[in-house]
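in:
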């Protein structure tokens, strides 16, 4: 199943909904040489997918941290996405700080036929899960499904745990705008603070 790139920046994947490979890294450092940059402390914000084990999450974050150090040794801020985790770092405050830069999108090139109904069901499901995630305490995640013809739409949404209810809802609402013009059977929106993933399937979606 082919994956195409929407107009927004898109992470690279080798197979449909497989691990992001190679890891997507972005930075917004100045063009000044390392010796001229201020040596201020960096803070990092790791986030693992909520349906994974603690061991897998730690392994993913460790890999992301190593890749960031290798690929961005002198940059002041950046982000990296893997299949099971995200790592963001910056010399600026991160805690409870929302940013949509960068946002990456992945979409399935196969479209549904009943567009109006699909849009309505997709919106209802994601809105329900966004409310579930926003009302979370230690974990801000929502997972669920909604019947669509003889299939079902399965979705997972997640915010970083430092976000308030309102911040999480706002982040997911803004992220959902990325797929509104598409009728794709599957889509992912990856954001430093939140992410949305849905897929149309005949059986329970296995996110692992």
């Amino acid at each position: 199943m082919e994956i195409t790139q929407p107009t927004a920046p898109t992470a690279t994947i080798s197979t449909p909904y497989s691990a992001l490979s190679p890891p997507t890294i972005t930075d917004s450092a100045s063009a000044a040489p390392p010796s001229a940059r201020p040596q201020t402390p960096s803070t990092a914000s790791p986030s693992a997918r909520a349906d994974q084990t603690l061991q897998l999450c730690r392994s993913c974050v460790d890999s992301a941290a190593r890749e960031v150090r290798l690929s961005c040794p002198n940059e002041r801020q950046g982000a990296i996405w893997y299949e099971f985790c995200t790592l963001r770092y910056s010399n600026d405050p991160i805690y409870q700080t929302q940013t949509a830069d960068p946002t990456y999108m992945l979409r399935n090139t196969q479209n549904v036929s009943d567009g109006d109904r699909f849009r309505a069901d997709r919106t209802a499901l994601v809105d329900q899960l966004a409310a579930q995630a926003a009302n979370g305490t230690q974990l801000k995640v929502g997972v669920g499904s909604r019947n669509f013809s003889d299939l079902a739409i399965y979705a997972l949404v997640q915010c970083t745990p430092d976000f308030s209810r309102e911040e999480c809802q706002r982040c997911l609402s803004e992220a959902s705008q990325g797929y509104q013009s598409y009728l794709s059977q599957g889509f992912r929106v990856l954001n430093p603070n939140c992410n949305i993933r849905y897929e149309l399937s005949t059986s329970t979606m296995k996110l692992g």
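note: The domain at 12-94 is CATH 3.30.430.20 (Killer Toxin P4; Chain A).
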